[in-house]
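Per-residue structure
===
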Amino acid sequence: MAEAPRERREPGLPVEEPRTGSCKPLDRDAAIAAVRTQPEVAEWLEQFEGTSGYRTRIVVTDRDARLYHIRVEVHRTSPEAGLKPTGALWYEVDRHTGEVTKIEL
């Protein structure tokens, strides 16, 4: 079987690495901002933020080299029980593309 022809280069010249994009990965705040733009999240925040008896939070629960894992929480507040979770939405945000994916649990 014949070998594929090899690229001829001058000795000592560096091999070019493929370009993967020059932008740096999203930071935590940019990932949270991306989740806030999701229609269901925007609806929750509009419905519950600033409403007496409810508290909303957006929490980065984990991060790896490729993804942020983000939870959007709504808690019911009461003097007797303190904060009581009433719902949560889960998302992953790709740190390199900014793509947001809802996670169904």
